[in-house]
Amino acid sequence: MTFAPPPTLTIAFCLLTAALLAALVWLVGRAAPAGRGGAWTTRATAAAIAWLAVHAGLASSGLLEGDGLPPPVLFYFAPTMLIGVAVALSPVGRALAGLPLAWLVGLQAFRLPLEVILHGLYDAGALPVQMTWSGYNFDVATGISAAALGLIAWRRPLPTGLVRLWNMAGIALLFVVVTIAITSLPTPLRQFTNDPPVLLPFHAPFNWIVGVHVWTALVGHLVIFRALAIRKRAAEPPEHAAA
User: For residue 1, what pLDDT is reported?
Assistant: First the structure.
């Protein structure tokens, strides 16, 4: 099916993707053990470039299209998210969890400009309304609150209960929008039948929304959960921690 987003939105999306990946690489470098920041930054940069190329190549190949059951696109989405979970649970994820909460929470602010771009695609007739805040996607609230909480956390510590509650809400909103997207794809799983269907995963560079934006949101939330667990253990009395 035809997918013709305005060039300005395509450029804006690519710039946001580049900025998000640059932020991730910078965070990895800052999280690296002493004396290994340069090596971690180099590896993260190479991994990011390869990741972008692989995802763009998959979309351009046409392999993700098809109406089988399960649809081929799910075999793209599921491994991508599983890799994200693996990264969050890896030593790299553990290192990232040691960074300031202001950085980890503030990173999720990228969801605000992303939602603005999605709404622009809807206005241009390239995305269905349910994928925007005019429909059922309220993930813009995560982006706005992340920016606000990140700025507050930069000045003073946030209550861990508040961060935990915000993190749970953010991952819930992420799950909602992913579910809406999957049930708006032109596959047998489609539940939202209004036009146009969601075509982002089938076209580069917009399929980076799966491989970079959704992936980063998921990994970021999981790393924050790890960060909160680390801080909780550090605050426990030694005898309680031993038990």
Answer: 67
Q: What is the sign of the dihedral through the CA atoms of 225, 227, 229 and 231?
A: negative
Burial (CB count within 10 angstroms: exposed 0-12, middle 13-18, buried 19+), residue 38: exposed
pLDDT less than 50: residues of the chain: 241-243
pTM above 0.90, yes or no: yes
Distance CA 8, CA 16 (A): 12
Domain boundaries, the chain: 7-234
User: Which token pair is 235?
Assistant: 């605050």
pLDDT digits (tens, 9 = 90+) for 125-160: 999 999 999 999 999 999 999 999 999 999 999 999
Q: Which amino acid is at 237?
A: P
Tokens of 193: 């039948």
**One-letter amino acid of 18:** A
The tokens describing 70, both together, are 């399960």
Distance CA 168, CA 85 (A): 16
CA distance 227 to 167: 11
C-alpha 232/C-alpha 165 separation (Å) is 15
Rounded to an integer, what distance in angstroms lies between the CA atom of residue 181 and that of residue 199?
9
Q: Please, is 63 exposed, middle or buried when counting C-beta atoms within 10 Å of its C-beta (0-12, 13-18, 19+)? A: middle
Selection from 170, 148, 165 nearest residue 228 by Cα: 165
203's CB contacts (< 8 A; 6+ apart) are 3, 59
- For 117, the token pair is 């771009």
* Chain mean position to CA 226: 17
